[in-house]
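Extended Data, panel c. Modelled sequence:
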Amino acid sequence: MATQVKKELVAELVEKIKKAQSVVFVDYQGIKVNEETSLRKQMRENGAEYLVAKNRLFKIALKESGVEDNFDEILEGTTAFAFGYNDPVAPAKAVFDLAKAKIKEGDQEFVKGHEAHAGLIQKEANGETVVPNILLMHAEDQLMAAETIKMMALEIIKLNQRLYSLEK
């Protein structure tokens, strides 16, 4: 990307940061194109904007906007940005709604994994030969870890929603 183009992008980001009442950082890894399109639409309908920018350029824009906080740990990997122009809570609500939908999708996959795991255990209990015994133990660990992470994610969502509701 040419230096002039980068400078223009940074200037646009600075303008958006200054105009916004809130900025939500979104790790968009695992978000499907149709989900992202729906998220953008929901944002637009609520006076917000969702975009993907290079983390390095966003860091520069934050600095140029006068934001003193250090977001280096957050600005790694696949990061998108949601700007709340009219309602500071709108972008967070849209992201939380998507997170809840992804958790529901994960629940469905969890059930499938649990059923497959239970089927293997049932076969082994019936005396049928189940070759990957070590995989049974590993699958159980993975299912428990997935459930634990889901519970943590739900608690984080609840905490953030409570914080946003207190700001109103």
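The mean pLDDT is 86. This feature is highlighted in the accompanying rendering.
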